Amino acid sequence: MVRFILKRLGLALITLWLLSVIVFLLGQVLPADPARSILGPLAAPSAVHVLDHQLGVDKPVLTQYWNWISNFPGTSYQYQAPIGPILLPALLRSLKLGTFALIILVPLGIIGGVVSALNAGKPIDKTITIVGQSMLTVPEFVSGIVLIVVFAVELGWLPVTATAPPGSGFFTQLKYLILPVIPLVMVLFGYISRMARVGTVEALDSDYARTATLKGLPRGVVVRRHALRNSLLPTITVIATQTGYLIGGLVVVEVLFRYNGIGELTFNASTQHDIPMLEACVLTIGAFYMLVTLVADIGYSLLNPRIRLKAAE
Amino acid sequence: MSRGNSELDRLREGRTELENHYIDELVFGNVSRRDFLRRGSMIGMSSTLLGAILAACGSSSKTTSAAGGTTTSSAPATKGGTLRIGAVTPAAAINPLTVSDAGGLLMLNQTGEFLVFDSNLKLQLQPMLALSWSPNADGSIWTFKLRPGVKFSNGAAMTADDVVYTFKQLSDPKNASNALSAFVGVLTPAGVQKVDSMTVAFHLEAPNGNFPYLVSSDNYNAIIVPANTDFTKWQTTFIGTGAFKLAGYTTNVGANFVPNVNYWGTKPLLDSTSFKFYASQAPMILALQGNDVDVIAQFTPAGAAAILNSPSYKIIKLPSANHRELSMRNDQAPFTDPRVRQAVAYTLDRPGAVAALLSGDGTVANDYPFGPRYPSTDTSVPQRTQNISMAKQLLAAAGHPNGIGPITMNSEIYQEIPQLAQVIQQDAAKAGITIKLSITNQTLYYGKTFGSSPWLDGTMSLVDYGDRGAPNVYLTAPLTSAGTWNAARFHNKTYDNLVKQYVAALDLQTQKQIAGKIENLLLQETPIVYPYWIDGLTASTPNVSGLNPTSIAQLYLNTASKSA
Amino acid sequence: MTPISDTVRREDNLPQADALDVENLEITYRVRGRGLRVVRDVSFRVGRGESFGLVGESGCGKSTIALGIVRYLARNGSVTGGKVEIDGRDVLALNASDLRKLRQNTVSMVYQEPGRALNPTIKVGRQVAEVFQLAGASKAESLDRAQEMLEKVRISNPAGVMNRYPHQLSGGMLQRVVIAMALAAQPSLLILDEPTTALDATVEAEVLELISALRTEFGTSFLFISHNLGVIAKMCDRVGVLYAGEMVEEGPAREVFANPRHPYAVGLLRCIPRRDMLKANRALDTIPGSLPAPGDVPSGCIFADRCGLVEQRCRTEAPPLYDVDGGRRSRCHFHERAQTLPRVIPPEREDVPGERQDRGAVLVNAADVSKTFHMEGETIYGLVDVSIELRAGETLGLVGESGSGKTTLARTLLGLTAPDKGSEITLDGQALAETAGKRTHEQEKALQIVFQNPDSALNRRHSVQRLISRALSRLGGYRGEALMARLKKLISEVRLSERHLSMRPAQLSGGLKQRVAIARAFAGDPRIVVCDEPTSALDVSVQAAILNLLNDLQRTEDVSYLFISHDLGVVRYLADRIAVLYLGRIMELGPADQVFNPPQHPYTEALLSAVPTLENGDVERERIQLEGEIPSPANPPTGCVFHTRCPRFLGDICVNTEPPLAESEPGHAIRCHIPLDELRRLQGKEVSVAGADN
Amino acid sequence: MSIVDIPVEDAGALQAGRSGVRQEVFRQLLRSPTFIVGAIVLAIWIICAIFGPALAPHSPYAQNLEGINKAPSSAHLFGTDQLGRDMLSRVIVGSRDILIIAPLATLLGTVLGTVIGLLMGYFRGFVDDVLGRFVEAFLAIPLIVAGMIALSTLGRSNLVIIIVIGLLFTPLIARTVRAAVLLERELDYVAAARLRGERAPYIMFVEILPNVFAPIMVEFTVRLAYAIFAVLTLTYLGLAVQPPSPDWAVDIQANYGVVPAGYWWEVLFDALAIATLVVAISLMSDSVQKALEG
Prior knowledge:
Shape of chain B: globular
Helix content of chain D: 55-70%
Number of strands of chain B: 22
Number of helices of chain D: 12
Strand content of chain D: under 5%
Largest sheet of chain B: 12 strands, mixed
Strand content of chain B: 15-25%
Oligomer: heterotetramer
């Protein structure tokens, strides 16, 4: 089992290094001139040239890559400040929002999937699928705006932004996160409920479910103890692969709800063309995504006895 | 206007030749009372003197502010409370040398102060850290007398050394300061000289009638900082002489200020101000609607219909030099022929665009960078209006009887510009000019420099220009042969000379004459179409009063107050 | 074995109602909008403590009947007629909770695939205990009683097995757990659906032994479902033969198998190779034609199209179940003449070839072939120093239980799996490269294979024509006209018709698919064809036809076979020489008749005795019971690898030293420490004269 | 152990005998209501895409600066937008770009994904590990950043958007295909092909590919819904279809800012159009998949 984990860790590290190379090359390719974006369009070209030199944009690519990697996360062009202290709090805030979204999304998605599997073919199954599919098409910035206008402005039940005043308690912070979480849940609900549905239908038709039923166990026990234990496990890994999407979705939601997470940081970095910040954000998001998928994989193999304990002694 | 001459004559003694010239202009009605106040204060006449002259010349009507927002509210201002202000996220570090965006300059003016203050509401250059200032005979040396007893927020007294250090840094090319765009060819570090502990003299490269503007709040980088300040660390202290001092600044999140105990002027009414940064305008407007902020510092009409049309918000409108420029490559067919360029100008329905795109918060422009914001504008030149048949005639005359195109117009996703691009496209089509749009986000649109920038290289290119106190930058950068942003590739010797004369002209009358010539030349050549000027807008909830915004998105909160 | 008395007697047992009473049961499946009546008018009764067998080929409806009885049909299936009573209670009328009670304590079921029948994520003990918890016992008490049940089903180390997971147990152990679970509630009726089909011979024998022992102990009545006549003969008092959804014959098992009274039953019994039949002297009889499509019911007798005795009456008037003497029934108008069913294939072979032993020159010689697998840090010894040779025109039978390395050996010969260093395989004296890719075109042509499962061996998306013509062009080098001619000749040889050419495998029956696979294998005129259990996925009647086909092809195409099977009946019929494999080592090698009769290796002897045969020879062969489970190839036992299960275990010598493969007679080698004559003496007295032939 | 016969489930895998499998599937599709509903909605949008301008009551480009932001009325069923253009016409004509970009992008992603999936699944070992790393690295790049960078380097046109979305879907589809191929390569017909001396490309594309078509079909329809979502997100960044095109994504991006001002109709009808299109596609794909499984 340990060998299995070490192998997965090794592969993940290689992928991470590969991602850093890709991100760096992509950063190089952006045409806009960093100094121009810092000094703004009205700055004199002479000033722009001086700043370019200061930023070392004209050094050979390899040295630039090495400098970037060796003192990652580096300094931001924009803020002329080390990126670390800006990036970390932003990442933590995004994690808070992301985790809160997952806490609502996972049970909701799984219940949706199981309910539609239990009465496959019936109207409720169709409605859940159709609702899931159509919610999936509403982008976050549309659903976000509508939610704000209805719940924050017109009804005033919930705050407009997602950032609670500093020092507010856990529940007030939660209240601030309710609105921004909804668009994220809407986008991913369709996919997760679909996966849970497929897994549950398969488990319900399995031989061990038949054995359980013919033992005379009530349907509830058959579903809960026998079917779900096997169908929900693979759904976890599927959810892990979706976290990448969640973080992408954060960019839009954070900008709309004025939540200073890593999503908004990436958006600002890309519009202000702050290459080091952009590269640091994308690499951090990539690393986090890989970490989550790795944990899900290892979690799956720990929970699944077939992999945890090898074949018959 | 001959009444009360004796009183007037008394006031004329001891005035310099320039000051008497302005008084004549006023008496003979060549200049409106408003422009007289503005120009007079610019050349150093004190407000008491100007007030007396106006009184002498007839009824001293209350200075009319721009339409809309009132300045002083009737209710007695209540003390205390925290004012929450929504503002655009500063695009970079708050470094007085390099700040160039609206979010950044708003931060500078919270704690920093200038030698001279250009307040749209007060319509005259107000003394701030300089009590008085005066040019030498030909306007090549300007001497400023500093206000005594001014202390920085850390208690240190402000002296000439601080002012000299500040302007030496600002005008030094190796610092790549944003102020260079104003000082290049005007002021060099050597030109900044200390006369005595309370007086500073500026020896200019060339005479410049508008120099006070270049050290006023218009040049937002020019806040006075203590000598030997490390500008890159300024963000941690925000050291300045202003009414507030820094309580806390978090990049990308927001900033808080509290009153500055050592402030030389009247103490602010508020207990503290709290700025919240927004990445784009939409969430900021929603925040005002959702009562998450009390004020939004600077926003544009595009997308703000929700608050512009509703009575429950106080809107302060300021005429500003914010405008759009549609440049046409004069060096590329079909735009080598001025008649084709004029044809494009004649297709545009300017009043319709202002009504639809700015919900009326703007004024039509006449294809040259002079407008209501600048007193030196020659208003006698007739305003161009949409004339499709004229446009078709011009095209036919230029050898294009059945229209031209398709021509690609590059532009950017910024405020109402995409919609304006589509209006131009449709109006141009009426005269047979087919335009294809290529609109990207700002970073891609600005690109690097000539050769790799859709903005500068586009056959047609629609770009935004921020507000400036004086038209100098708009006359030089996009239009002179050596202009750094000459997207239109407009090379015209007579025009270049006229601009040199304008910049050098000291008095309003000569500037106006030269402006008239420039306006007519540009109408004839039409290298660039100027659709309209956009008003600077500030909004607040009803219980807020005493806001003092400037058209370049500064916001002075010395007199601000918030009732319960 | 704990005596019966202490298990709780069930007082509330109803007075002697039948355990199961089924009257003209009808079951319909809705497939693609059409209703198919898959089971029609089936009636039978299972008395208390009686064991009733349902036998029939695949597609005859036996599993559907079982699932219908416990009302667990698939979503698109439903009982559309007849009555089912268990313990006197009408099952179809029960509401949900009564049905649950019935399943809890009156009827239980044992399934074919034990591995899939248990929940992979729950420990075995808890799954058995669940039954007791349902009956109201506390958690702790039900776990004890569960362990007690595991002891009853003779599982070694029951305490250990309690908290193991299903994937950690062997097939045999899993089936015992399922049986324990089924009998825990002491049901009055136990339905066993192909319980030992998926198990190896020796393990099957043990499980069947266990089932009959438990039957006497618990007094449960059995409904035993299987396609295997031998197993039914051994386990059941009465039997019902099913064909295409209808009961064609019913009666006491002994009598039905001794003299069947329905032409289908007669034909079926003739397809099974008997102990003394050899390919040289007797051809297996077959049943012509193929199974009718499900649910399409002809007017007359269902078997009419395939029956040798068919007359006009059979076509028009559907025969009822006539009562035949001695409580038997047969659904045939001429049931008394059933035995006179004419044979399809003449029994005697005219051209009996010469002596089978001295075939042509040595074609393939494999010396010291070993193969070790490395998985997850474990080394598994698949093959250990196997040396065999295959002569031209000869059939070498490769026999052994699953996991003995039969398929691995075949794959190394074919180049699908690379053997370890040091093994060398030669064809006509030339060395064969490790992997198929590296071999010469000639070598590729010479060596071909027929796989066990035709569904997996044929590409589902290609038509039959494309499958065969691709092989013809790649291997045979045929083009254009020559290819078409060769194609026609080939399909006629394997008795396919041209209308099959445009079809896809999904549209063919199992037998037809295997014929296509054989045609493809013979496309390049191979000299050796490896048959990896070619008939084990087929019905009995279809299997006979395929064996005959392989037999004929060997004679006409002069090809030699490496015939792999775990079914000794088939191997004895077809093979000239036989190699017996156990844990990757050859235990015995020699001509078929010498291997099948003493003196033979104790393992071969046990394998033979485990085969449930139809021969009702007067003296039952003394059953040789192999104790314990097959050891894992990851750590084989020391010395003689068979010593842990050998009934003739000598002692330390077997534990310490591995016996060599010694030649007892010319061409016949045995790997055992017991000297040959000692073996002959031990094995000689127990066996009776070869069973009577009928 | 006597003759073994693994009983085939009595009613399940019955040979379909007479009629070919394809007609069977087709006939069953025509009877399933979900397929019909989906097909009708999709047909409507395709007709709008082709004959849009003819069907629309007004020209989608005609601006009327006096009649801006008008609520739905008899004159304009879907109201007017910020430049006074008729929203109903824009929704009708607006389906063209999305119906071109989304399917083509998904097709590109599916083709590339299938090839990579086949290579990874068939060769396993070194190839699988190396390609696997690239697949995972690409999966970790957010759509917005990738879109931004690609569009800025390659310039902006529909083709570039198709390439960006296609490349971003490739790793997702490759993972699914790899899983299916890993199962398929263990079957005997692959071994039989190797024994016939078939080369790897033949085995992959002629033997294995037809058998992994069902999972590819399912993946295609799921990705199609996400492709439309991706076009919307790229337009939000101003990187996709160019105004004044009446494309749904362009309208939603341009008008979402005025929703707070109460002009809900300038976004609602575009969003509904997209939702109906995606739901129609997923309904059809579900019924096709059910029919294939039989």
